[in-house]
Fold this sequence. Notes:
By secondary structure, this protein is mainly beta. The protein has two domains: 21-75, no CATH class; 78-170, Umud Fragment, subunit A. The strands form two sheets. The chain has a seven-stranded antiparallel beta sheet with strand order 3-4-9-5-6-7-8, with no helix packed on it. Strands 1-2 form a two-stranded antiparallel ribbon. It has helices at 33-40, 71-75, and strands at residues 45-49, 65-70, 82-86, 102-106, 116-121, 124-133, 136-140, 149-151, 157-167.
Amino acid sequence: MPRGGRRTGAGRPTGSGMYGEKTLAIRIPISRIEDVRRVVQQSYFLPLYQSAVAAGFPSPADSEMEGKLDLNDLLIKHPAATFFVRVSGCSMIKAGIHHNDILVVDRSLEPLSGKIVIAAVNGELTVKRLLKEGSGIQLVAENEDYPPIDITEGMDLYIWGVVTNVIHTV
């Protein structure tokens, strides 16, 4: 019996992948895989300076650069499970989440009590703090003008993911 090589009917059907076209397998040295991933993901490395910026009294600037910073590495821990969503409204203002901010949301994280989550309640999307106490569940706003949402029997609740970062424009 022959080994290796092409076999009739083996593999995925042509065009059935994510891009709907033929693909080509390539070999990459293990030491260069991260370099190729960065190019494919179009990562941009920006300078990260070693000294922190004083938010109180000014301190002398330190011109030494600590290294390069890739925002993908900083903000996204699970790329396949991460998405972005833009905020509409001001119910989470005291949590530092403002209208038009962009949230980084990770679907792979467990929605623990106290975490800020993206939830669908009866088909309506919202960003709120998840509180679980006993068998009770509440979605709580970080603005006293918005009452908590008590999740009761018969309500449809689906947690889309846990908010990990807020991108806020000043």
